[in-house]
Amino acid sequence: MSNTPMAANPLTRVVLEIDEYASGLGWDQPARLFALVDTARLRAEEPALAAQLALPDEPGPAGLTPIEQDEIPAGRPLDEFLGTIAWPDAVAGCALTVERLMLPPSAEAQVPQGLDGARLTKWVADHPERQEVRMTVAVLRDGARESALRLRDKDTPTEVLTGPDLVPGLADALTATFED
Asked: 17 exposed, middle or buried (CB, 10 Å; 0-12, 13-18, 19+)?
């Protein structure tokens, strides 16, 4: 069973579950995409898959089950890849975990003007205040969203930040995968 703390709602629980899974894989991992399905519906409609995923047979509280998707193509920009996704009706939502470098707000004023993408990436990577962060963002078809952030230098479950608006751009990109 998971060590994920019991959160108030199913979306927060699944974000923390995915964060825990990604944490177990270690750092320097590729982005990972997950379909989120209603656990009760999965048990009812796909009992063999539910058994393979070791889902308990007894009905429990409403929940979501993350199902990892095929690997995201290396070298393809994430926003471009997300633009190619269409989910079947059985998928209630989706989640993505990705590692990035980030700077504190105080460093944003120091960013040199006119840097292209590659030079900006190098500048951030060389900045002494940079932080490595793993972001797990999940959205549902109804617009609900949740995020978990884990800093590499504070890599413990008690240091994971959660909230619906921590990574709004990524949440918007995931939400767009459900639009017709």
From this structure: buried
Residues 6+ apart with CB under 8 A from 171: 137, 139, 145, 147, 164, 165
Name the E strands within the chain: 32-38, 64-68, 93-102, 131-140, 145-151, 161-163
Q: What is the pLDDT of residues 33-57, one digit of tens each?
A: 999 998 888 888 887 877 777 776 6
Count each helix (H run) and each strand (E run) in the chain, helices first: 7, 6
What H or E segment, with its residue span, contains residue 39? helix 39-45
At 20, is the pLDDT very low, low, confident or very high (cuts 50, 70, 90)?
very high
CB burial of 41-73 (b: ≥16 within 10 Å; e: otherwise) equals ebbeeeeeebeeeebeeeeeeebbbbbebeebe
> What's the rounded Cα separation, in Å, for the pair 48 and 15?
24
